[in-house]
Design brief:
five-stranded mixed beta sheet, globular, Neutral Protease, domain 2, 525 residues, 26 helices, binds zinc ion, Serine Threonine Protein Phosphatase 5, Tetratricopeptide repeat, 5 strands, mainly alpha, 4 domains, Glutaredoxin
Length: 525
């Protein structure tokens, strides 16, 4: 673009100003460019692209059209191309400057990404340890494509772009989430800009339920596309949470911690109001409120489905795509105002028994300080923080010292005291004690503790690994494999789990599985 074009760049919003110049042609141009932006806002990217291509033919010298084109390319995942266009655009306007920064950051963060494609997805990641995630990611996403596509009545025609960021720093630079949002809320994934983005579980001490998270983000993708991005945030989150486990044939979306926090909230009349969930659950004040908000909206969706059947979800999205305001769409499809709906939901919840488990705590995501640094140090540090209180922490330390010096029975005593003192059902402490029992081959005590802890924290990778180890030691390879596989899906970066699975497959003469596991293991070595 030449210098003259730079000077005549307008961005959307200056239409009124333009028409005062009686420049009808320019007003037309602005209206057409605005239409392009609207299509992007409505997640109608293919139509936006067609519109933009036509505009480029009609107004080949318009800075506004080129700026729109940069947006289209960005949403298609062509960051280099978007950047090339933006380089020619003057950035004296705030909108331009802001977008340039976003494109520049995204381009930088993804510059070394490699790509793997499945039937309906393209996955972008950094070649290296994160390669281990790809077969699992494809499994979760392709199953989601089928299962969720049927429920929501939407199957994207284009392959969906998925980006896996190695840790939270580049992720915060390419998303509207700040580091503080990520740390406070435990938000590690996002669906925005026509793609799914997540932080690799390899950057967390114990991984996380990243496969459900990917599926959750994919629900957002479907819903944004099908409703033309007209679904309110609470409904988005409610449906995504309600459906996030479906890809693996599990209808139970409610974790014990969500249930407990919701029960407390309802009993004490402490709720996160729907309007306070804006602009994102990641912006709520703490991780407990985030869990409460999820529990509220997921049970609202559950209630809606119980009343009207699962087709209600697709119907709502279709009505919203017409441009019908949400409250009206709710009245049409559910027959209630939003207020009535919430009142009825509360009544419904009062009749539904919810379990409160005192001591259950939201486990904060623990990031490794440095992915290259050993897992051990940061895990140790996190474990101490999570002991609960100073006394429990001191007793745990003492237990650790005794254990390291092989005073096993003495260590057991200290860990038991720590659990009693902590009162927060810390899965870390349960695992320390259970692991120490394992050293003594006291399988019964160990298993009882691990199973109890698993009931509270079903996705705690260390518990699953310990249970795998327990059955491995007992030579019950079928049970061991089951638990190790579950652990692998939360944290595929633990070398022990890989080597145990390889041994199990070798012992059972399952050569092909052994080789597959060996290949996965090679990625993280
Ligand atoms: Zn979500």
């Amino acid at each position: 673009m030449n210098r003259l074009l730079k000077q005549t760049l307008w961005v959307v919003g200056s239409i009124v100003l333009l028409t005062t110049f009686h420049d009808v042609a320019r007003a037309d141009l602005q209206a057409e460019v605005t239409e392009g932006y609207l299509l992007i806002d409505q997640w109608r990217f293919e139509e936006a692209e067609t519109t933009t291509q036509n505009l480029l033919k009609k107004y080949p010298n318009s800075g506004d059209v080129h700026f729109l084109n940069a947006r289209v390319e960005f949403y298609k995942g062509n960051y280099e191309k978007a950047w090339k266009i933006l380089e020619t655009v003057d950035d004296q306007y705030h909108t331009v400057k802001e977008f340039k920064t976003l494109v520049s950051n995204t381009r930088e963060a993804t510059s070394v990404f490699v790509t793997q494609e499945s039937e309906h997805f393209t996955i972008h990641y950094i070649d290296g340890p994160d390669q281990v995630l790809i077969p699992y990611a494809i499994e979760a996403l392709e199953k989601s494509y089928q299962v969720l596509g049927k429920i929501l009545g939407y199957f994207p025609k284009q392959k969906v772009r998925v980006e896996i960021y190695p840790d939270r720093i580049p992720f915060s630079r390419i998303s509207p989430l700040t580091m503080k949002d990520i740390m406070t809320s435990g938000t590690v994934a996002l669906c925005k800009y026509n793609r799914l983005m997540m932080i690799s579980p390899g950057s967390l001490v114990r991984g996380y339920n990243w496969m459900d998270t990917l599926s959750h983000e994919y629900v957002h993708y479907l819903l944004s596309s099908k409703s033309y991005n007209n679904a309110p945030l609470w409904l988005h989150e409610g449906i995504a949470k309600y459906l996030e486990t479906r890809w693996r044939q599990d209808a139970d979306y409610m974790t014990p911690i969500m249930e407990s926090i919701l029960a407390d909230g309802l009993a004490n009349d402490y709720m996160v109001a729907l309007e306070d969930m804006m602009p994102s659950l990641a912006k709520l004040k703490n991780a407990e409120d985030v869990q409460l908000a999820y529990a509220e909206v997921a049970t609202m969706v559950d209630y809606m489905v119980q009343e009207k059947g699962e087709t209600i979800l697709a119907q709502l999205a279709t009505t919203l795509a017409d441009g019908t305001p949400f409250e009206k769409a709710l009245e049409i499809n559910v027959g209630k105002s939003l207020n009535e709906f919430q009142v009825d939901w509360k009544k419904h919840m009062a009749s539904r028994p919810l379990k409160t488990i005192p001591g259950l705590t939201v486990l904060k995501f623990r990031f490794k300080n440095n992915r290259a640094a050993g897992e051990k140090d940061s895990a140790k540090e996190a474990a101490l923080r999570e002991a609960g209180n100073q006394r429990a922490h001191d007793l745990t330390m003492l237990g650790d010292i005794l254990k390291s010096r092989q005073y096993i029975p003495a260590a057991i005593i200290e860990y038991k005291k720590a659990i009693e003192e902590s009162k927060m059902l810390s899965p870390i402490l349960y695992n320390k004690l259970a692991g120490t029992y394992l050293l003594q081959k006291d399988y019964d005590q160990s298993e009882a503790l691990l199973r109890k802890s698993l009931n509270y924290y079903p996705q705690f990778a260390t518990t699953l690994t310990h249970l795998g180890e327990l059955f491995y030691m007992k030579k019950d390879y079928a049970a061991a494999e089951e638990f190790f596989q579950q652990a692998m899906r939360i944290n595929p970066f633990n070398p022990l789990v890989h080597s145990r699975l390889i041994n199990i497959y070798a012992a059972q003469g399952q050569t092909e599985k052994k080789e597959q596991q060996g290949l996965l293991y090679s990625y993280i070595k």
